[in-house]
Batch of 3 targets.
Target 1
Amino acid sequence: MHLSLSVMTKKAFKYILVIVALIVGVNNVAAQSKTRVQIVNSKIFKSDKNVANGARRLIGNVVFKQDSTIMKCDSAYFYGEQNMFEAYSNVHLYKEGDNTIDVRSNFLRHNGNTKIAQFRNNVVMRDTQVVLYTDSLDYDIRRDIGYFEHKATIVDSATTLTSKKGYYYHHQRDIYFKKNVVVVHNEGEYEMYTDTLKYDTDSEIAYFFGPTDFFNDTNYMYAEFGWYNTQNNQAFFKKEALYTNPKQSITADSLFYDRDNKHAVAYSNAEAIDTAENIIVRGNYLEVFEDTESLLVTDSALIIHILDEDSLYMHADTLLTEFDTSGVHRTFKGFHKVRIFKSNFQGQTDSLFFSMKDSIIQFHGDPVLWANQNQIVANYIEAFVVNDHLDRFKLYDEGLIISKEDSVHYNQIKGDEMTGYLRNNNLYRIEVRKKSETIYFPTDEYGILGANKSKSGNITIRLKENKISRIIYRESYEGKMHPLEDLNSKDIVVRGFKWLDNERPLLPMDVFKWGANTSEKPKPNKFGEKMKSVKEYKSNPELAE
């Protein structure tokens, strides 16, 4: 029993010691947090019934001190019992051993218990990086946090920020702005308007949260979240990101912009519109170079050239549009799995080059063109566009033109070098040079008469309603008409014959498909899979469903 009581006594004593330590700790903290304001200096002291509330009147070179905080002024009322004072004229607050904070004003009310300093009238707070101007600033000396609610202006080396409300965190080097925030950089080089903004005084980066507008001499930008680095003029925008200049506009889920290098990169659901050239560029990754007015797009890349009565759609793994060396004529380049759709002709190839200077489209790498009922292939193709229509094409090396007569028989014209001419989108003449070869099936009202197979050096072929009406053999003709029953399936096709109609794009968004019965689909894109007509586009530029 005695042993038990002794143990309990020791435990109780330990608990008492802990409680005493806690009480002492709390008292010490309280004592530290409620230090007294000290009068360090004053030329004149007044203390009589004429001084308000028993305060002491201090005049001339007045200096107060609390902990490491020094406060100076021309005159003051000091309330000893309340541990506070009111300072007037040439008010100056700073901290010993810390030259990073310096506040001046015409008036200061300081509460030594809460350590809240209330500055009023012509307040100027200087940090190592910025200067804050306002008429009303409250400063929490314990936490080194300042806040204003009646408009303030922040100025650093090149940037001026104004807002209705704000908070300054001295240790974090951050300033938060709220309501009617305006940022002016380099005397109007660019301006930013937003509702909520955080400014890092060390990095000089402005972070914005909410609808924000950016202006400079030529560009306008908008976003609802992002940042702007005022030192290197780089920015990142998210949520409804928009960038415009006099010649083009860009929208995207997010956008990076380098103003000094005039370079922008848009990510996810990006769209660029060139109003001068009537060109729309879309993709999930898009780069813009202002100096050269060039655009590079990949990841579901699509270029739409808006024409008066029709539009041309082009897709590839990577698409590039820029101006040629003269700086006058725009060019288009497509790399890998290029597909084209236009109502009167379609095409696909591995790579493509097109210049508005001569309106020639160059197809490289297993090219195929479709013009009405005709399929056109070669190792290399040049297509000539006149007044937005396919006027003629040239086939180099293993050129082959095929049109379907029925489900089994195909008219075929082959040659090493061929030129086809179109009128009203119909093929009406073909010039074949070097090793020409033809297989076609003449018909009458009863059907196919037979198979006309021939070879020659140079020939001219006339067509009517996309059917061969006349062949003119220029040299070394060899050929004859064959009854169909005398020919097997191999005899009625030329070497290299392939009918690729199941690869032909039939709708604008078919340009995203590659190969027959393909399962390859474009990545999700908010613009939808069904394109509008040109007239609908012009009335509704968003083109989104």
Target 2
Amino acid sequence: MKKLSLIICSLALLFQANARTMEQSLNNQIYLKTPGNFSQTHQLRKGSDGALYSTTGQLPLIINQQTREENGTLYVTTTLEAQQDVWFNLQNSFALNGQMHNDCLFYMPGFWYRKNLRSPKEAPSFHTNDSWRVREDRLSVPLTGIFNEKDGNYHTVVRIDDFKTDALNSLKYGEAILTGETSIGYTGFENENGIATLVFGFPTHEAPRSYVRKLTLDPEVMMFQHLAPGETKVLKWEIKAGQAKDFSEFVEDVWNYSYDKFAPQVIEEMMSAEKAKEILSNFFVESYVNTDKLNYFSGVHMRTDDCASTGSVEVGFVGRVLLNAFNALEYGEANGRADLVEKANAVFDSYLQHGFTPNGFFREFIDYTHNVEPTELSIRRQSEGVFAIMHYLGYERKNKRRHPEWENKMKHILDAILKLQNEDGSFPRKFDDSYAIVDVSGGSTPSATLPLVMAYTYFKDKKYLDAAKSTGSYLEKELISKSDYFSSTLDANCEDKEASLYAATATYYLALATKGAERKHYADLTKKAGYFALSWYYMWDVPFAKGQMLGDVDFKSRGWGNVSVENNHIDVFIFEFGDVIEWLATEYNEPRFSQFAEVIRTSMLQLMPVGNSMYDIGKVGYYPEVVQHTNWDYGKNGKGFYNDIFAPGWTVASLWELLSPKRAENYLTTNYRR
């Protein structure tokens, strides 16, 4: 009780201090532009009547700013009323007095974590600059947070709006007048003479660089919104002060606050899981390829407009051919689809005969069209292949069918994988068939935890559980305790969603496989990592301009996850994380988790290509991958569209797992008798 009282007193003193200083820390300026001319900057001062006045001359608009401080939160409402045609960009800054920039870590959900130092200099990071402002639709919540590592104080600013409109950008950099009305502003942080400062405003202003495509930084861009005479614009922000013991608790606090603020709702009248699987199963039919070596579902590197098979097959990552085979088998037998059962068994049989390297690893990727097969292997693809086969073996054994050859193959590959495990429990990210290490990074380690726990359950061999627990120790020490989730995805080196999602799923598996205090410990780790994974998922619906396909079909971004710092688009990567969230909701009596899980389930089915709603996809059930929701492209098309190349192999597998609840719990509680 004494400790609790001290914490309450500390928070009270913090809020009192901020109550005295928050409004005084707020500064404003406005940029005004007339067509064909460079903008003019006006510093603003607040009068006793709440109006903002230029310190340098008369303004062509009336600006009124109302502020209210309550319980450590400053509510800011700014109203602009044009007296003549005006093109403006309003900037606000909130200096955190006494908070040194070098003592702080920074957070923009789904885009910026700590200092983004895991990301290369070609992407937004401290490698390039220590001050950044970005357009709001890059973020899963239009919010910036600053956390002081030394004293635990934090501040956030969040934009409050209906977010209904957007306008096309006339230029990618420099000063540009928007082609119409937008709801999108900007948010970020700045080093002002050593003091950490929140910066935010309207409309978009990205600096010092704008991120336009993978590893491509453009110059600064500032947009200007037009107001006609007599027209008004109302802008609202909330600046909140708080305290947390570490960055992890800070992210948890901000996620809960954001969830309560935005209260994302399920997408009504969405199709059932049964209907969704029926549509997705067409992928198993049309993507199937039979060769004299491997039979497979072609699901990578294909065009969205025709979805033609490309001759490429991939075990894990974006191909997921073996997991798709298992899903096709299970679904085919449950629904009397002999065609799917035949195709699935053909895939498994061909991989048993032709799917392994000389040393017994999976052949990860083969391009039959160009006769290319890289020699580089990865712990992630290998693990995802074993994961799929362990599901297959478990399913077959339940149906009184045994596959001793597959069992021996899995024991061999698991033992080969264990040879790669480091003393700290980690696995190298990439290697070759002779065990030579290509990439020492441990970011992909949690992908190995899942099949190791499954192998322990299936083979009753404790060495697999011991190895899995060793990965858990590494995850706790190097990722979860440091709030540093990185490089789980194979096509980027940066902070990414999949690292935290895989970490949460890995510790979830370990919790399911253990008891008592050990189980509770893994559950707590799952919760910590889970908040970081959740932070990548959108709580709001970003607006689109007319003519942008996603806006034209009324797409809602809530429940979709951003991908990584390098790859700034949203997708349906979820797999078993829906189960993890539901499990956490029960374990910790946290209804937000289960509510948001349902938002994700309904929202991720929005772009199902079927019938008269194909959403610019060439074939039924080939679910889209690169959904470009902000001013960024993966190479083609830009906001409101997809990239022209996609990989439905993993999107179908991800949604299928989302629609197949409690797979891990069912697997790990089954007694696979000899």
Target 3
Amino acid sequence: MSRKPVIGVSADTFVIDGHQFHGAGQKYLLPLVSLGAIPRIIPSFGPGSDADDLLQGLDGLLLTGAVSNVEPRHYDGSQADECPPYDTARDSTTLPLIQATLKRHLPMLAICRGMQELNVALGGSLFPRVHEVTGRFDHRAPKGEPHEVQYAPRHPVTLTEGGFLAGLAGDKTVIEVNSLHGQAIDRLAGGLAVEAAAPDGTIEAVRVEAAKSFAIGVQWHPEWRFAEDPFSAALFAAFFESVRREM
């Protein structure tokens, strides 16, 4: 019997009762388990972590969303770009981890903060507060609302004609997505292709052009009840199929 693929999942760091924890939301783990993979949370120990060591035994990487933002210093931001909360240990772990993952040709799916990390790791920059940029929507989740409202579809995105994501959407050129982010891509990193965009011009999905396996980032949250949405299910299935092929 063939073994189950092992997929690394990026971890946030947080404090409970004075103790430091590393963790990932269950909503990111369940799609992997349902597809037959074993998720393995990668601790964010920050500087001193060896990205190649962290990837040992992994068949793919899932970069999760988070409450925290990428620190502006990683993309030459100024003091005026401060946008806490931060997770410095996660930044210092995931940015080199992304580069090592691409070098190893491991499949990678980057969600929300994960897509922002992908852009920064490859030399791009972010709008620290996209809702303050003239002409842009407020892409943040509505405060104080239940999860069913926060993760509900908020706006359409147009899929790039001939792109990878367009190929998953059948005859659709526009899909509805949720929106729960404060940062967004400003300068697109070299080597990334735009796969989807919101009506206000915000880049909503990217693909690593030179990647030899699946390497996609999306700004929305397809993991939320993914099996109920055909496009989200197709996205995770494509990621899993790529992991299987590369094992």
